[in-house]
């Protein structure tokens, strides 16, 4: 056997470097091939046909990209339900940055603070949400998909033809996500519209209320979620408001993490408590109210005694923590069946389908991103069955869960409906992913003109030599002063 030649450390490093370069080149080739295919598809999607035959090009920004190496084993594309929003032009972003430097912040009047839901959503206008066109089982899947695509493009053309991009809020441009809403509405017997109690008007599109209660003839339950984050007087006021203006609503108060408002809360323990919640679930506040609302809707057509028994078991076995403040791990309860939905365009659903089929009531959960739909389902079940995230748009596609043998829950991805809501308010309300904003100054200025941010944070104006002297603030100044403060907090928790 021939003797091996000496192999130095330098040669070994060179060999490893060449191997990494070859591997990187192979990955770049696969990525460029995938990008070329997706790029051509995105260019086709950017072309929007209007109803009168003209064409308008809308530049779409796709968020929450998921890493993938082509399609999955069953042809599933993890980026199929990505958030699609209209892209802000570079000129518009630069204009807003200049305004943040030049415009002095002034407190707005009390009239400006009021938010009229009729002005924001303009019921009866083209700001209505897209509907699924009529279809039948005689149509092929390709015909149905083509018809839905054409109808959706006509819908977008009407909106962009009636309103300028500056007036429109961010709203979903991904047809695949709207298809999820259509399926959920068609298969549901009761629809839950989940809203955030801190800004429920922002999350309540009147067009959806009219469609569900009118055209579909279904019961709509408005869930005011996260009530632990609002004063009780505000919760009661919002409940009275919706009862007065929308009489067909069933209003339910809910929170997945109830706490006693009389108990003082130590700010230093917030992070520790949020971490413990990942290991154990306390009993949610609101399932019994929701059960009573469903009993009033079904009026004995479905046996909901199993649901009531489950709530009784959860109350008896709820773990509220021991004296050391640590929560015990819950034992697994009864198995919850999870149905992975297929991509079939024609499912046995529709307004004419049999209600409460086989003695099962299907409850569809819809709403804007980040209002707590997945947390609500986890709170109803009593343990984590749905992945949750603080990032809007975390739920990709709808799934169904059997809460009991006679109660089925259906979780729909969060959808942003078209409106004239200020985009800055969408960012501040957590509807738009804050990590994806192209410039923070507009949202900060919007907040600072309504709340004295600089006084609350004890900020010192960067150009003020004497701290006691008043100096006009702009959004750029506030951001420049907040940045060192955030760095300090991150290094000294």
From TrEMBL:
Gene source species: Sapajus apella
One Gene Ontology term of the molecular function aspect: GTP binding
Compositionally biased intervals (Basic residues): 1-14
Gene: GNL1
InterPro entries, per database record: G_CP_dom (IPR030378), GNL1-like (IPR043358), GTP-bd (IPR006073), P-loop_NTPase (IPR027417)
Regions of compositional bias (Basic and acidic residues) in chain numbering: 15-26
Keyword Phosphoprotein: yes
Function description: Possible regulatory or functional link with the histocompatibility cluster.
Alphabetized PANTHER family for the sequence: GUANINE NUCLEOTIDE-BINDING PROTEIN-LIKE 1, LARGE SUBUNIT GTPASE 1 HOMOLOG-RELATED
Span list, region Disordered: 1-81
Name of the protein in question: Guanine nucleotide-binding protein-like 1
Keywords: GTP-binding, Nucleotide-binding, Phosphoprotein
Domain CP-type G, chain residue ranges per copy: 178-418
């Amino acid at each position: 056997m021939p003797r091996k030649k000496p192999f130095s450390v330098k040669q070994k490093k060179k060999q490893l470097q060449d191997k990494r370069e070859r591997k990187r080149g192979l990955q770049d080739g696969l990525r460029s091939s995938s990008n070329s295919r997706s790029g051509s598809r995105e260019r086709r999607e950017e072309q929007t046909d209007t109803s009168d035959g003209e064409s308008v090009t809308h530049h779409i920004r796709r968020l929450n990209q998921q890493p993938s190496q082509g399609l999955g084993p069953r042809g599933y594309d993890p980026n199929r339900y990505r958030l699609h929003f209209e892209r802000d032009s570079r000129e518009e972003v630069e204009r807003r940055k200049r305004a943040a430097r030049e415009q002095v912040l002034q407190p707005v009047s009390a009239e400006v603070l009021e938010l009229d839901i009729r002005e924001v959503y303009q019921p009866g206008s083209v700001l209505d949400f897209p509907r699924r066109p009529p279809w039948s089982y005689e149509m092929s899947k390709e015909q149905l998909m083509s018809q839905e695509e054409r109808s959706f493009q006509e819908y977008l053309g009407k909106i962009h033809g009636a309103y300028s991009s500056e007036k429109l809020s961010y709203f979903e441009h991904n047809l695949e996500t709207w298809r999820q809403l259509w399926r959920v509405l068609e298969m549901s017997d009761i629809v839950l519209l989940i809203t955030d109690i801190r800004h429920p008007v922002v999350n309540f599109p009147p067009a959806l209320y009219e469609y569900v209660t009118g055209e579909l003839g279904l019961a709509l339950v408005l869930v005011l979620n996260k009530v632990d984050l609002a004063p009780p007087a505000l919760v009661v006021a919002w409940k009275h408001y919706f009862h007065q203006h929308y009489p067909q609503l069933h209003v339910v108060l809910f929170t997945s993490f109830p706490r006693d408002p009389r108990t003082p809360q130590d700010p230093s323990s917030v992070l520790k408590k949020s971490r413990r919640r990942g290991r154990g679930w306390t009993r949610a506040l609101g399932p019994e109210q929701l059960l009573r609302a469903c009993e009033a809707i079904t009026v004995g057509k479905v046996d909901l005694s199993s649901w009531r028994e489950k709530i009784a078991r959860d109350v008896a076995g709820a773990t509220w923590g021991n004296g050391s403040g640590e929560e015990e791990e819950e034992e697994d309860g009864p198995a919850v069946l999870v149905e992975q939905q297929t991509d079939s365009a024609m499912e046995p659903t529709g307004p004419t389908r049999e209600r409460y089929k086989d003695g099962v009531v299907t409850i569809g959960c819809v709403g804007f991103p980040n209002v707590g739909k997945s947390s609500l389902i986890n709170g109803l079940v009593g343990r984590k069955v749905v992945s949750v995230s603080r990032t809007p748009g975390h739920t990709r596609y709808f799934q169904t869960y059997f809460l009991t043998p006679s109660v089925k829950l259906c979780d729909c991805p969060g959808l942003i409906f078209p409106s004239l809501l200020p985009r800055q308010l969408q960012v501040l309300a957590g509807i738009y992913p804050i990590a994806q904003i192209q410039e923070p100054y507009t949202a900060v200025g919007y907040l600072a003109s309504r709340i004295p941010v600089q006084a609350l944070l004890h900020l010192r104006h960067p150009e003020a030599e004497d701290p006691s002297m008043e100096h006009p603030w702009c959004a750029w100044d506030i951001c420049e002063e907040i940045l060192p403060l955030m760095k300090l907090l991150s290094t000294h928790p």
